[in-house]
Structure formats: C-alpha cells, structure tokens
Amino acid sequence: MLQEFKDHISKNLSFLSGSKLLIACSGGLDSVILARLCQALHFQYSIAHCNFKLREEESDEDANFVTQLSNELQSSVFSTQFDTNTYAADHNLSIQMAARELRYDWFKKLALEHQFDYILTAHHADDNLETFLINLSRGTGIEGLTGIPEVNGIFVRPLLPFSRAQILAYAKENDWQWREDSSNKSTKYLRNKLRLDVIPELKGVNSQFLQNFSTTLEYLKQSSEFIKNQVTQLKKELFEVSESDIIKISIHRLMDCGDPKASLYFLLKEYGFTAWDDIEHMITGQSGKQIFSETHRLVKNREYLLLSLISEKIENRNYSIPEAESMLMIPPGTLKFKVTSEISDIDLKTIYVDKEKLKYPLTVRKWKEGDYFYPLGMKGKKKLSKYFKDEKLSLLAKERVWLLCSGKEIIWIINYRADNRFKIIPQTKQILKITIA
User: Fold this and answer.
1) What is the CATH number of domain 2-205?
2) Residue 28 counted as an annotated binding residue
3) Is 293 annotated as a binding residue?
C-alpha cells in the first residue's frame, strides 16, 4: 500500500510534498495509518487530536494513545478536549454534528495560528460510499451524490482511493496498533447502520461493488462538472442585469429551455431558494407574486422573473399570522404551522410549542435593541443582544434575524432558539409544530 499511496500523492497531490501539514488523528485505524504513511514519505507534519469526552475513560485512553504515537513518530502533537454534550444542547445539534463543528473549527484555528498549509483527514473509499448512501436516503441533488471531495480548500483526504480493507491489511502486515471506538458498533447512528448492516450486503451481491461504486462516482463528478458548465452558459443566455443589480429572467426564453423547473433550480439555488414547486408556479402565476430566500426575492412581473437582494424596506416590515393560517412566506423562508400529537425532528428549523399559550394573531418581525427572551432549557431571561454576542453572530447575521412573537413575547428566534415560556409540558393539550423551510 505504501507504494500505491506514494504513487497517488505523486500523481494527484504532489503539492503536499514540502507543505506544512496537520493530520487529524483520532487514534483509530484510518488516521493512524495516514500518519504512518506520511511519516514514511518524510512529510513535514504535526498531529491534532480531539477528546470529545463522550466515552468516559475510553476517550482519555485515545488521547494517551495518540500522544504515544506522536512520540514514536517524533512529531509534535496538539490536543484539546470539548464538552460536546453541552455544545450540542446549546446549539440544538446532534452529537455527531456538534463534534464535527467543534473539531473542524479547531483544526482551522490551529492552521491559522501555526501556519499549516493543509489539514489531512483519513476519509477513505468506504467513507465515500457511506456518505453517498446517507445523502441518497435523505434526498439530494447531484451535488450530494458526487462523494467527499479529495481537496476542499485546506482540507485534503489522501486516503480516498483506498478501501478500509486495504488499510486494515496494511496495518496488520506491519503489526501496528490502533484504538477501537466502541460507539462504532452501535447501529443507532445511520452511518454505523449502513457500515455494519447495509454495505456488507451490497458487497455480498458483488465482490467488486466498492470498485464499481468508485467508477460510478467519477461519472457523477464528470456529470456535475458538465451541468455546472451548462448552467454558466444558461445564465449568459437568460440573465439580464439592470443598473440597479436586478436580474431579469425572460419567461419566454426560459420556456424554450425544455424543462423550466430544472433550469430554475440550477439557476437560483445559489441564491438560497428552496420552494421549487412555488417557484415553478410563478411562471404561469399572476404578476406581483413573490418568493423569498434568506437573502433574495424573486418577483413575477409580466413576462419576467425579477431576482434581487432583499431591500431594507422589505426586510423591516412586520407580518401578521391569524390562527387559521397554516403557511406564510417571509424573507427567511416559508413558515408552516401544524397541530400534531407527537414530537419529532427537533432541529434549528423546527420547534414545538403549547398552542394554548399563544395569543393570536402572531407576528413576525425583525429584532430590535431591548428585546429579550427566555432561552429554552435555561432559567431566567436574556437580552437578544447578549445572546447574539454569546453565539458570535456577525453584524450581517444579526441583521437577518427574524422573530416569531405572541403579543410582546418572543416565541422563537427563527433558525436559532425557542423561548422557554411556550415549551411543551405534561399538561399541554395542543402541540403546535412550527417549521421554517
């Protein structure tokens, strides 16, 4: 495997030679082998290890193992630890997503502070297959089916062409040790379920499944690049930019493209739009109909669709929501209201509240100085200005914050945090599910 790795670096990632590298190392098989391969190629590198404090003594033993490995390889090591459970709760994230945010933010901070040119992670061909299947199961465009990029900014994944079986065989051949993460055996996580239950069945159907998948992935990447080039050409043909930076899209020319919905998807997705069925209906809808993304609005104006940045006048208006309303389009997206009997899918875009505590009509407005709320899961109130500071929101991000209110009380800082006063309790009789899409 060493020679194959060396050839791959020489052919595709030659820029790593002579660069200052940071290797993300958990202590598991893949990252240990990546470190040893880089050592064998005499790369200039350091090792970074995150202790997420999720597996009690095991996590500490992983950290000690990585320190010992660094000593053996005579490389410097950076270690840190996180209170991952608290971070996940505070940011309304799954444990996996919280750990990902924490480690990637830390890696980028290390790269900046210590002038590392690239950060290497140990993703391999099996990881690529797992990611593909996860995206496929959730519904995705072709971008989600092109796999993990080998190079993404300063992040590089040199092991992507190699399978887990190759890496394991190489480790055993050299009698090298690594750490086993006991949580990888739990099928409560989708990725683990795919790895342990689904993918072995697929490989059992065809022993060349992984190799064939890698070939298919290359075809999908090529198709994605082709589509990007076609979209660039389509923009040249359809976009007319006025002096006021409003983009006019001719509906007549759009219809000549053959599939207007697909064309609009590729033309407008970079502007943050998601309501594709509604956008398609604009083509035949009445003039004046408009749809918002977080940053832009699309307006039907006779024979054109007009695309523009959301103006300050539009941004600062208030919206009233009567009790009978089930959906409202606002600049951040489409608010939907539904009475339900169960709670599921809790994330930053979904909240559940006690409907009987609401005072109608509800309102949606921008935040203002002096606003305060009672953060869900916490005691006491907090000013929004303090909350935004704690969340490290930029000025631009704060300007885009919208509030869902009941009277003068905040129900939800949309896309961020719900208010504790409207939470579901055992005595709740009506649960209202509110989503933003």
Assistant:
1) 3.40.50.620
2) yes
3) no
